[in-house]
């Protein structure tokens, strides 16, 4: 394994200034397609159920099949990008995702749709796992990298709320099939642009052998873990024997994977990367913040639908302020904040704003008004996410060696996916349990439902507050670019004086 840095990643020197930004937009287009797909499908689930005859329990597999493949393969996909070339994996993922999208749109039975959704998850994992690693190698200069990561963070974070709006429009204006068919022209165009704009990288190669046992163990551990969260835990409860048995199986497979990585000559995930406090802390924060944010977007949508009576299109429009605020900060101001204050302080400030927003959501009443009880929460969430997520992405990759960039990119995606699935399952279960208990005690249905949502909002706030604690204790603050410039200028003056 004697590859140089230039063979491991897209060479910045070979990319002109304009073409690098076009390459970034191409990568973000691929990411947006993946992120949109999750919430677009959620909006269309009632129409899919009516058309294909899904039961309430079987309908969940339209979402679960995707999540299991996506969450289970992210880490492996990221490492494959390091070994086989990140552009190769990105384009292969786009191809698989696009073909699977067409199969989903053409599906005339439950079985075909669920199988195609699993294949979509495979393509989504291959596509998204390598993007962040490609961005940090395309933009090695700190200021440009901060700006590029801000654009990526906006797409990755805000794409879900855009999907709510797009799903409502497509489903109501045409039919649910088009939420999948729309990916065909986008996928083809993105793949063509990627081949044209992004230099082909050779990767480390497979010469020293691939850690096949490690790949099997981590993929199985993650797939079993995600399956446990989205199926038996959500349907039977966390204390059900089947849930406990599968949870223990997932943990056992994960333990075997760690032992394998400590002893293998060419491990899939070298454990040395966790020597970085920033990478370890960033992944913990990513898992916790994803747990709180994803759960709240889902349960917040249910609050708008079941308590305030919003339809799918109105829910999408209601979340639009979050997207706009997040986009303005991520694209225009996050880079300036990181350059001025360093990534650590914006990270903490953003997480605190999200925590305040979640706490405020616990006060939304049965007869709530959007401008008074919902809009301030969504603005705070947008402010917090727009400030902290670009900083978090930058910190997660700051200490990573070029040959491990794909692995680190896949790892941060994996913690986000598992955190989101776990957070949603826990928050939804606790909310439903609280609602059922209050309804059984004689409380009016809407009051009981709202109190259940309030509990989940409060717990989500506690989860994000825990991320604040980790950011303050585990993460190692990095100097701002402005401070580094002052130090360099001081050194130059000292040399001149000497």
Automatic annotation (TrEMBL):
Gene3D superfamilies (alphabetical): MFS general substrate transporter like domains, Multidrug resistance protein D
Topology versus the membrane: Multi-pass membrane protein
Keyword Membrane: yes
Molecular function GO labels: transmembrane transporter activity
Bilayer-crossing regions: 21-47, 59-77, 89-108, 114-139, 151-170, 176-195, 215-234, 240-259, 280-303, 315-334, 346-364, 370-395, 407-432, 452-474
Gene Ontology annotations for the cellular component aspect, listed alphabetically: plasma membrane
Subcellular location: Cell membrane
InterPro entries linked to this entry: EmrB-like (IPR004638), MFS (IPR011701), MFS_dom (IPR020846), MFS_trans_sf (IPR036259)
Matching CDD domains: MFS_MMR_MDR_like (cd17321)
UniProt domain Major facilitator superfamily (MFS) profile: residue ranges: 23-479
Keyword set, alphabetical order: Cell membrane, Membrane, Transmembrane, Transmembrane helix, Transport
Major site of localization recorded for this protein: membrane
Coiled coil: none
Protein name: EmrB/QacA subfamily drug resistance transporter
Taxonomic lineage from the root: Bacteria, Bacillati, Actinomycetota, Actinomycetes, Propionibacteriales
């Amino acid at each position: 394994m004697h590859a140089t840095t230039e063979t491991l990643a897209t060479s910045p020197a070979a990319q002109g200034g304009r073409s690098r930004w076009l390459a970034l937009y191409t990568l973000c287009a691929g990411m947006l397609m993946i992120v949109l797909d999750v919430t677009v499908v959620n909006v269309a689930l009632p129409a899919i159920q009516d058309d294909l005859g899904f039961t309430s329990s079987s309908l969940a597999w339209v979402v679960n099949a995707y999540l299991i493949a996506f969450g289970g393969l992210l880490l492996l996909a990221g490492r494959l990008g390091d070994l086989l070339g990140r552009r190769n994996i990105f384009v292969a993922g786009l191809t698989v995702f696009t073909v699977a999208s067409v199969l989903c749109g053409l599906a005339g039975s439950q079985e075909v749709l669920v199988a195609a959704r699993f294949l979509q998850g495979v393509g989504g994992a291959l596509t998204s796992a390598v993007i962040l690693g490609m961005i940090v190698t395309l933009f090695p200069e700190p200021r440009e990298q901060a700006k590029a990561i801000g654009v990526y963070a906006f797409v990755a974070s805000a794409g879900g709320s855009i999907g709510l709006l797009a799903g409502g429009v497509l489903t109501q204006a045409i039919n649910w099939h088009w939420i999948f068919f729309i990916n065909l022209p986008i996928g083809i165009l993105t793949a063509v642009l990627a081949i044209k704009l992004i230099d082909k990288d050779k990767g480390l190669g497979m010469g020293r052998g691939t850690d096949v046992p490690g790949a099997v163990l981590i993929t199985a551990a993650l797939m079993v873990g995600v399956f446990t969260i989205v199926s038996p835990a959500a349907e039977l409860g966390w204390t059900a024997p089947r849930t406990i048995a599968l949870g223990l199986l997932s943990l056992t497979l994960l333990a075997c994977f760690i032992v394998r990585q400590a002893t293998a000559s060419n491990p899939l995930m070298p454990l040395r990367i966790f020597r970085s406090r920033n990478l370890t802390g960033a992944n913990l924060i990513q898992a916790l913040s994803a747990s709180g944010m994803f759960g709240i977007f889902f349960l917040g949508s249910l609050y708008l639908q079941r308590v305030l009576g919003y339809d799918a299109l109105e829910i999408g429009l209601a979340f639009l302020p979050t997207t706009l605020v997040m986009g303005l900060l991520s694209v225009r101001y996050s880079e300036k904040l990181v350059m001025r204050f360093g990534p650590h302080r914006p990270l903490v400030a953003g997480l605190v704003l999200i925590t305040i927003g979640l706490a405020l959501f616990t006060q939304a009443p049965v007869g709530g008004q959007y401008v008074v009880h919902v809009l301030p929460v969504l603005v705070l969430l947008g402010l917090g996410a727009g400030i902290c997520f670009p900083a978090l992405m930058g910190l997660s990759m700051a200490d990573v060696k070029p040959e491990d960039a794909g692995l680190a990119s896949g790892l941060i995606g994996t913690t986000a996916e598992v955190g989101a699935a776990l957070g949603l399952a826990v928050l939804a279960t606790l909310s439903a349990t609280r609602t059922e208990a209050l309804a059984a005690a004689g409380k009016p249905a809407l009051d009981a439902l709202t109190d259940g949502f309030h509990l989940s909002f409060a717990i989500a706030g506690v989860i994000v507050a825990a991320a604040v604690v980790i950011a303050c204790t585990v993460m190692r603050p990095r100097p701002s670019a402005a401070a580094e410039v002052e130090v360099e200028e001081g050194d130059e003056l000292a040399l001149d004086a000497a």
